[in-house]
Amino acid sequence: MRGDDEAAPKKPQDRKIFGTDGVRGLANSGRMTPNAIMRLGLAAGRAFKNGAHRHRVVVGKDTRLSGYMIEPALTAGFAAAGMDVFLLGPLPTPAMAMLTRSLRADLGVMISASHNPYHDNGVKFFGPDGYKLSDEREALIERYMADGTDAGLADPDSLGRVKRVDDAGARYIEFAKNSFPKSLSLEGLRVVIDCAHGAAYKVAPTVLWELGAEKIEVGVEPDGFNINRQCGSTSPKAMQDAVKEYRADIGIALDGDADRVMICDENGEIIDGDQILAVIAKSWKAKGKLKGGGVVSTIMSNMGLERFMAAEGLRLERTKVGDRYVVEAMRAKGMNVGGEPSGHVILSDYATTGDGLVTALQVLAVVAGESRKVSDVCRNYDSVPQHTENIRYADGDPLADESVKSAVKAAETRLGAKGRLVIRPSGTEPVIRVTAEADDMRLVKSVVADLAKAVAAARP
Fold it and tell me: Which of 163, 390, 421, 453 has the most other CB atoms within 10 Å of its CB?
C-alpha cells in the first residue's frame, strides 16, 4: 500500500504558500515576516467578504513569542480589507473553530504552529461553518496575495475596527464542560494535566477543576520560548512522571494548540489515539450515540484497532494521513468519531476539528461512569507489532524504480492477508517512510529492512 505523508498531499499547482494545515514557517522569515502576514490578512479578508454587511474575523493564538508580531500584522491586513477584527488572545485551536460559529464571524484565524518548537509559527483559517478551508479557497487567497498590498483596500470610511474579547476563554470553558455528561462528576479523581506551556494553559485546568477533579498542573507557565519543550503530547514523559509522583488516576497531555491529546493510565503507561478511539467508539455505541457504524482513522492506525472494531460489529474507515482527510471522510460517510494515532481526535457532535480537552473528557466520562481504573477502561486490544524506518534518498522518486516495485510486491506477499504494509513519501524532506505490521515482529522487521535496502539502492 502506498500512502501520503501528512505533510505531502497532492496540492493544486497554484497553492504554494498553504500546506496541509494553513501557512507555517520559521518566525520572521520567508512567509512568516510581518509584510507577508499582512498580505495574507488582506488577501484572506478579500476572499471572505461577501455582501454589504459588516464583516468580522476572530483571531486567537498560542503562547509563542512571535505571536506578538503576527497578531498585529494580520490585524492590519484584515482592517485594511474592511473586516472588523475580534482578538481573543491565547486559546486552543478548537476554541477558535467553535467561536467562529458562535460569534457569527465570516472567518476564524488561529496563530499557531501546533506541536512545533517555539521558533516556528503558523496561521490556520476556519470558514464561517467552523471547518478548515478547502483547497480552492486557499488557492484564491494565494492569488489575491500575488496582487500585492495595493489591491482590495477598503475605502477610508469602510476600514475595519479592532476589539479585544475578554470573555472568550469563559465561553470555551462552558462549551467544554457541556460535552461532559451532566449526571457525572470527576469528584475523587486525581488528574495530571500537561498543557505544554501552550494555548490551553488557563482553560484546561479550569475545566477539570470545575467538573470536580483534583488537578495537578504541568506545563502552565509559558514564557514565549518553552511551548512543547520537554512537555505536552509530543513529550509525554513529564506527564508520566507527574502521574507516578502524585499517584494520579490519569494523565492528560495536550499539544501547543490543544487540538491533540495523549493520555496515560495510573501506571504511567501511554494510551495513544487508537486506544482512545476504541474507548469512545465502544462507549458511544453502547449509548446509541455512534453514527455511521464505525469510526474513521488513517492508514497509520494499528491493525489491532481494526480487529477490535470488527469484533464490536463496527468498521474502520481509513484515509490518508492528516486530520483534514479524516474530517472529509466523516462528513461524507455520516460518522461522528474519527482521529489519528497521534491523538488528534475529531468528535463532530461537539467540534469541527480535533479537540484534545473534549476528547479527554469523553474518556474521563467512561472512567467516572464505570468506576474502573483507567488501565482497565483504556486497554481494549493488544496492538499488532509495527515497525517503521525512514530512508533518505538523493533525488527523483525511488518508488518509481522497478526494483522497488518488485520489492514491495515481495513484501506484501510475505506479510499476507494478516499483515499490512504502508509506504509514505515525505513532502518536507527526501525521505521514504516504510511501515509494516504483522503478528510476528521478526517478520515485520525483516520486511522493512529488505524494503529499506531496495529504496536506498534505487536509481530512478
Answer: 421
